[in-house]
Amino acid sequence: MTVPPLALAGALAMTSSVVLLGWALLSRPSAAIAQARDNLVRGIDLHTPESRRRGSGLAGLARGLTPSGTVARLDRLAATAGRPAAWPIPKLVAAKLVLAVIAGLLGAIFVAGRPGTLTVLMAVVVTLVAYYVPELLLKSRGQERQQAIQLELADTLDQMTIAVEAGLGFESAMARAGRNGKGPLAEELVRTLQDIAVGQPRRDAYLALADRTGVTDLRRFIRAVVQADAYGVSIADVLRTQAQEMRLKRRQRAEEKAMQIPVKVIFPLILCILPTLFIVLLGPAVMDIIGVFSR
């Protein structure tokens, strides 16, 4: 049995793409080297023209084929997601390219087998979706992290308020909240204190915290802290006021979601539950009416 050349080429291309994708996503240095490198370069943009010229292999090729705006957008999304160690920017760029190539090759094979306008359109759409899959996953993780920070903010501010009223300074209260917490907000507080410890001005470290997370409530709190530090306002009063406001907003968001439930239930009720209910209740009566008029 002779294998068609097109099918053979498609199989070889798909196999090589899968191998490249596995290498791009799973290859990594030793744990100690990776952790030391991440601690040194976390949050620093190393994508200079010199580093691009030094790039080699699949990551360098993917970086050369990817627009700079896309890389900058991935960097912002990675910062919002907490810069996960398993998803560095070079691997994300390589994954986008490899997934698009795989989807494009499969789409080309499908179009060659069944040519047509609809088939070509489907192949193009699938290729575009595959190209944006890593970006969508990273954005989803960032949104989950933002929601977690938003939920933890009120309780964290309460802890900091108690610590400040007990006699601790603002940074000491932040350090205690960071040590006692376990979520993403505690990690961000610890990183902010580390930035201050290595010499970054406090105002810049606070503003960087707001920019990294992208949470509106946290950004308002940071602005209030910066203004209190600039004008000499009591930080305990600021913390107490902000904690009350965050609790009120959290309760209002919960009430808003509760009020949205009846609206969301309408569509499955109309499309799924009511037709079945009508069939069960009115079915026997309709059958009896049909039987009476058919005699």
Question: Can you walk me through this structure?
Answer:
The protein is mainly alpha-helical and 295 residues long. Helices cover 84% and strands 0% of the residues. It has twelve helices and no strands. α5 packs across α7 and α8 packs across α9. The chain starts with a helix and ends with a helix.
Share of helical residues: over 70%
Query: Beta-sheet strand percentage?
Result: under 5%
Terminal residue distance: 65 Å
User: How many runs of DSSP E, i.e. beta strands?
Assistant: 0
Structural class call reads mainly alpha
**Topology pattern, helix = H, strand = E:** HHHHHHHHHHHH
Cα Rg: 28 Å
| Biggest pleated sheet | none
Tally of DSSP helical segments: 12
Instruction: List the uncertain runs.
Output: 45-56
Shape summary? flat
Q: Write down the overall mean pLDDT.
A: 79
Write the layout of secondary structure elements.
Layout: H1 5-26, H2 31-41, H3 49-54, H4 57-65, H5 68-80, H6 89-113, H7 117-165, H8 170-180, H9 184-197, H10 202-213, H11 216-231, H12 235-293
Helix pairs in contact: 1-6, 4-6, 5-7, 6-7, 7-8, 7-12, 8-9, 9-10, 10-11, 11-12
Please outline what is shown here:
Helices cover 84% and strands 0% of the residues. By secondary structure, it is an all-alpha fold.
List keywords for this structure.
mainly alpha, 295 residues
